[in-house]
Prior knowledge:
This protein is mainly β and 307 residues long. It contains no helices and 26 strands. It has an eight-stranded parallel beta barrel with strand order 13-14-16-18-20-19-17-15. Strands 7-9 form a two-stranded parallel ribbon. The chain is elongated, with a radius of gyration of 22 Å. The model is unreliable at 1-7 and 12-20 (pLDDT under 50). This is Hydrogenase. Pfam families: DUF3737 (PF12541).
Amino acid sequence: MDIRHHQGLKLNYNYTTRIWKDTIVKEINQEVFEGERALFKAHDLNIKNSTFQNGESPLKHSKNLNIEHNIFKWKYPLWYADNINVTQSTIKLEAHAGIWYTKNLTMDNVMVEATKTFRHMSHSQLSNITMSNAAETLWWCNDVKLDHITATGDYFGKNCENIVVDHLKLSGNYAFDGSKNIEVHNSTFETHDAFWNCDNVTVYDSTLVGEYLAWNTKHIRFVNCWIESDQGLCYVDDLTLENCSLVNTDLAFEYCTAINADVTTTIDSVKNPISGVINAPAIGKVIQDDPDIDKSAIKINVGGQSA
């Protein structure tokens, strides 16, 4: 999958809800399930108004399920599942590590209270989800769309690939560490060390607050973003800022290469950028004190004039 960060990220499947109403042959309504693997290998079911109590892995290896108004109270509810639709449901705190190795999941209007949910998940869509304890959630996932998500917790989105995000509100550090092919729209990040060690990231129309933004990342682009980041945007290879505000940000761009930055606000300070162009109306201080850097490879324009 060859995705360029200057183009819209396209995932390799569509997000239509694939719920097999013609093939579902049985409905389960207002039941309480207990014990390990209560509905192991369940398939072609409509499960409504039910509660999964104590007992691990109640729906392990399930497929073709429509789950509506259910409560999951214990560990590992949906592992190795395929073609699952979950709506108006709750995943309680004790149901941690809830959805791993699952594909073709559609989830809408769900409250997730547990940690470590969504790992090794693929070809899925999450919308209108609140994750109140999202620590170590969404790891090693690929081809996933996130739409109107509120999440609180550190290490959200680690080592993911091919992710499209719209209207994410995230509070928690180390977001999307080590991820690849990420496209973000209309989102708010309150997180330090966001987008570290990434490759091919584009962020549109978003607010990012937190120090050390995007260190050690390749090919990252911010468009119409508002950024506050102490020592942010350092050690980046191929960094683009288009019409961005950079507020309360000092020592920016250290050891960055291939910079193309159009900043609309005063930058507190810039330190030892390696190559590219930086445009800003004002810069508090330009520091170029590394003798190993060729200063001719970097152009800094302040108020339309070369610094």
